[in-house]
């Protein structure tokens, strides 16, 4: 697997759909604008191949539902998740921040600037409640051939970024990594324990307005990873391909949210796009397909 996109496709094909109902142990503020869920449960035993920045969908039931558990989804003939016999839960994408399989603990960090439903759900959670989630989608891989990394994230993408930073080999990170994040994430991203971060980090007022010249060195193979709002990701993807000459196979651009659209509306739109693409023979595990579906108007 010589590129992030080929790796994500192959690993995705091998992974089975995983559903967990986990108990909330703790909810705490970890930095300005970020809250942390600590979850516990024996079903973590089935999550046996964790990777940095693994993504999942939390299944949000009606806030007044007497039973907060959601049934496990099943794959339809196209391989997409469905919930036969019950109303489809509302879904929101989150990231595994850390995992302790020995103690069966998982932490999940959530930006307070995230979707309104997600924050409403989070504000109603109490220790002892059950959180249902389904995943995991691979979001990170670092091929040995990569010489430079450029990692870009906004508040919504910051938890995934933090997970990646803690997983980077120190010898690689100190020599070949550029990190670009908005000023609003300074306290949170600054909490990542890595001595080399100060020299690699650039805090900017906005991802829509920073100097892109010289970010990627010439004559080196660079991998670019972007996780942010749709319009910013779309613009930065263009810069990476056109100005930085980064191969599409070495570029992962993820739209974590869409200004002006709820997560529910985005999911419904993208689900219909996936169905059409799969009818036409697309590979549902292709990260390029996911990228095109979320970023192409």
From TrEMBL:
Residues 147-260 form the SIP-like Rossmann fold domain. Transmembrane segments: none annotated. InterPro entries: FNR_nucleotide-bd, Riboflavin_synthase-like_b-brl, SIP_FAD-bd, SIP_fam, SIP_rossman_dom. CDD domains: siderophore_interacting. Residues 24-136 form the Siderophore-interacting FAD-binding domain. Pfam families: FAD_binding_9, SIP. This is NADPH-dependent ferric siderophore reductase, contains FAD-binding and SIP domains. It comes from Brevibacterium aurantiacum.
């Amino acid at each position: 697997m010589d590129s992030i996109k080929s790796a994500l496709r192959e690993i995705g094909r091998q992974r089975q759909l995983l559903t967990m109902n986990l108990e909330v142990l703790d909810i705490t503020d970890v930095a300005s604008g970020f809250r942390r869920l600590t979850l516990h449960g024996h079903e973590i035993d089935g999550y046996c191949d964790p990777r940095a920045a693994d993504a999942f969908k939390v299944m949000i039931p009606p806030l007044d539902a007497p039973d907060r558990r959601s049934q496990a989804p099943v794959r339809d003939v196209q391989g997409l998740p469905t919930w036969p016999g019950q109303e489809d839960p509302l879904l929101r994408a989150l990231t595994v921040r850390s995992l302790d399989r020995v103690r069966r603990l998982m932490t999940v960090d959530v930006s307070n600037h995230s979707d309104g439903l997600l924050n409403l759900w989070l504000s109603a959670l109490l220790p002892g409640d059950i959180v249902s989630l389904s995943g995991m989608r691979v979001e990170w891989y670092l091929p040995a051939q990569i010489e430079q990394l450029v990692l870009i994230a906004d508040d919504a993408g910051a938890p995934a970024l933090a997970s990646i930073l803690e997983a980077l080999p120190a010898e690689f990170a100190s020599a070949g990594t550029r990190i670009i994040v908005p000023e609003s994430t300074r306290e949170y991203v600054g909490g990542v324990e890595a001595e080399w971060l100060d020299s690699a980090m650039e805090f900017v007022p906005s991802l829509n307005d920073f100097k892109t010249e010289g970010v990627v060195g010439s004559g080196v193979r660079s991998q670019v990873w972007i996780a942010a709002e749709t319009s910013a990701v779309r613009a930065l993807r263009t810069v990476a391909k056109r100005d930085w000459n980064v191969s599409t196979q070495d570029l992962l651009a993820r739209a974590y949210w869409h200004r002006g659209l709820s997560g529910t509306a985005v999911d419904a739109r993208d689900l219909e796009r996936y169905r059409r693409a799969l009818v036409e023979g697309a590979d549902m595990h292709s990260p390029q397909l996911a990228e095109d579906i979320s970023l192409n108007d």
